[in-house]
Amino acid sequence: MLTRETVAQYILSRPALAGSIDLEGMTAEEVGDGNLNLVFICRDTSGRAVILKQSLPYVRLVGPAWPMTEDRAGREAHSLSVYGGLAPNLVCGLLEYNEDCHILALEDLTDHEVVRSRLNRGGSHAGIFQPMGVLIARVLFGTSWLSLKEEGFRLQAGATVNTELCLISEELIFTEPYFGGPRNSVRPSVDSVISSMRTDETWTTAVMRMKRRFLSVQEALIHGDLHTGSMFARGESGHEEFSVKAFDSEFAFYGPIGFDMGLLWGNILAAASRAAALGETERANSLVAEIEKSWLAFEQQLRSDWPNRQKPEEYSDDFLESWLADILDDSWGFAGCEAARRVIGLAKVSDIETLGETEYVHAVNVMMTLGRSWLLSRSGRSFEDYHQEFSQLVDKFSA
Amino acid sequence: MLTRETVAQYILSRPALAGSIDLEGMTAEEVGDGNLNLVFICRDTSGRAVILKQSLPYVRLVGPAWPMTEDRAGREAHSLSVYGGLAPNLVCGLLEYNEDCHILALEDLTDHEVVRSRLNRGGSHAGIFQPMGVLIARVLFGTSWLSLKEEGFRLQAGATVNTELCLISEELIFTEPYFGGPRNSVRPSVDSVISSMRTDETWTTAVMRMKRRFLSVQEALIHGDLHTGSMFARGESGHEEFSVKAFDSEFAFYGPIGFDMGLLWGNILAAASRAAALGETERANSLVAEIEKSWLAFEQQLRSDWPNRQKPEEYSDDFLESWLADILDDSWGFAGCEAARRVIGLAKVSDIETLGETEYVHAVNVMMTLGRSWLLSRSGRSFEDYHQEFSQLVDKFSA
Q: Per the database entry, which stretches of residues form a coiled coil (chains A, B) (predicted)?
């Protein structure tokens, strides 16, 4: 296991990292606030830094009682490298991966801020989510049969099975929040919201339909955990230093592409619900509008790559339209699941958890009600329609 | 490569086959009429037999120009062994698999007849297809997360990727018939049927939607080639010797379960269209009625296994209903694709090909028209409705 004391020795031992950093006077800091990894920022006296990330053999939130394959570092390395080829400016760069020790050396993004933190402190969201729409489109185009042909697609899908990490998603997103479990919790003030959900079989069956899609659909090498805590941002949209990058892709596997979009939307809703609960109505509406913007960016990027697909004579423009409709449907479905589980389940979000009591109740009501609606009433609705429903619920629960 | 001269030596070298057959005076006959394999019937003087099947390194129909992994024998061995555990009386038994030489030793089913041949000669179809519905249900239940849990399901799906054989299906079922290819052919009398299909973008886009499902949905270790030429039958329903068994499962992979059902239905349609073209109206209708019977047998078996699923608290009865609806939808979609490709594509069926000119035109028209309809108009229709459409088309094209 890496420690602050051994990182210099480690870097010295890696030829691929020579020149990335000056070891003389280098400092190291452990900053892993995640659940599964050690993360060290190693910085030299000139300010250059290398990030080292080593996977732990268990889930830190739970401890050694939940063992977890260290191979997931390899999943992250592989997906970062694939994404880097497809959308180099939209993901954290991979300097090298040491398979023997499960250590990734990563691009220094310490001048970026985690998007969830940025939004929680009221930072700007303008232009933050379109890049993720672009990334999702590039991943769909680049890792599906559209680029790899059918044979390459099947081989890649088979080679990137990520059973243990998928199991975490299956349990924490689809199962525990809805069927109970000791790791769920909410404040007593919203107990009734949760208990009425648990007895709502229409809701829970719809969640399990989405779980079935998560289990049985493989469309692309999806990120698998693309929430606002897996995104870095720097600067303001329109300025030269503006940058948005996804990271933490160890959940990557061949799954339904709408899952990435849906997780993003569920977390945009968390930010918007927080803003609404804090009385920042205009900001809340502007945040919700990011959902449509991210979709349009996805759609635009995919349409722009479309002429370069393999076998264009087979995959017609009409084929694309019907696929887009299915992806949109999936996205709302997964977004609905994500919204509810971020309130109830083990992996809660600070957007909601840091709110005062009145604001918390308001935000939870908005997220749970919309989560159900997104999941259950997603046929043929427009983005405008979804947006109006958000505004109405914000008013309703303020009354 | 096995030859008639070397099979005795081979059997002698395999301890697992000792006692299955008496080598003294044993005869060997090569009977492979398939496309990809050598098949030897080795029979001793007392009448006992062992079947040896060795995969060729190329597609026999095309020759060495289409190389084909011999590993597919391993796919067949694995799937036969899995199916044998789930539905021992409904699949050909596997005596042993020799991985080094790609040779399967199989149960002697020489007292059975290939179902396509049986139907072509006017043999009875009563009770023939329900067992396949049962088999499909057992496979869905036994190889999905319903039995294996989510983790086991993902591991199995990843371990049984069958890229090269899937590619054959992708090309021969979904692509070539609709987008042209030198391996297609029909008699000149139906050229117009084919050319109007090729310019029918609604049709071809719907086919590609099914191809997308074939590529992207993994639900169970499906047979992958479950037509009437992959089924053996012996005796008459209701009699003790009655037996129906699937074989030739080298296309097995984790795919959409409706694909197996759909291929079966497309081939039932071929048999029914043949009967109708020959003026055997009652028999034709009775054959088409087998479609519903096979589905009901599937549904009944799945419902009967359902209480034994893993995690019953998560997978509710409503969940089953919605899954069944999706499988039924898939089944009609794949059946529609199968119907058309069995008329046009490389792998034609003797049901249609052996007909005289007038009968051929009639059968092709029925199959192509129904194939399109099954694929495009499958929302909310009853089996009765599909059956009536068949009868109407039989009349229409006879007029």
A: none
